[in-house]
Amino acid sequence: MEQNLQQQPRIAVFSGSFNPYTIGHARIVERALPLFDRIIIAIGINRNKPVDKESLAARVEAIRSYYTNESRVEVATYDNLTVDFARSVNAHWLLKGVRTMADFEYERQMADINRKLSGVETVLLYSEEEYASVSSSMVRELESFGCDVTPYLPKR
Questions:
Q1: What is the rounded CA–CA span in Å between residue 32 and residue 86?
Q2: pTM of this prediction?
Q3: Average pLDDT, stretch 85-104?
């Protein structure tokens, strides 16, 4: 299999809700680009929650617009298991960013299960120190109180 992988494009799936897509997310993708031929930013849809199609479309468009000059980055949505989506796009790697030990432990457990289910490997990149406290939920909360969140969002 290793020889077979060397002949195929190196495709990684970077999955999440990305609500919103933060500067921390963008830095993980930027730092991972030298490792992969293509990165697919995949916005997961939870089937158990109502889907706000307007919000989802806006997230997809915002992320796509950020990468208009980077042909190796694509944006997609999916509503199945992340590893099933990865296989559907011929990706052999999941890309994840970790900020804390709690993130690491959660992602380690997920990586073990994903590898057992599908053979898809997980690549972890640690957050840069200045972005370790940036999370989508923190940005949403600050925004709900009227705070300027532009320092936490990638610049277009």
A1: 17
A2: 0.91
A3: 96
